[in-house]
Predict the 3D structure of the following.
Amino acid sequence: MKDEQTEVDLHLANLEKIRQSIATKEKEITMLNQVKSDNELTMKETQKQLDAVETEIKEIEKFLVILDEQCTAFLGSFTSNQAARAQEISDTIQAKEVLAGMSEEGAAALAQLDHALQHVRKGKL
């Protein structure tokens, strides 16, 4: 009977250790579930941030395409515009010189006309 009681006591002690082990494992499971939940939340937030960054990258890429098209068009017409401006400047300088020459010739012609008119007036008076 003593052996039986010892075995029962050992068995009960074993059961208590198993219950403690189960309680410890349940606490670990609870903690791990909490960590898992926290990590899933962090992953969702990170995924949202990643999506936002990818959207921003796509918008920037579209903007760069538009900018490239505009700059290419501007640079393409820049050379021809510069040549046209240089021609306009040259034409303006030439017109100025022509007008300056006409002004001198015109002044001389007016002086001759004035002189002729004075002679005509003197003859009529």
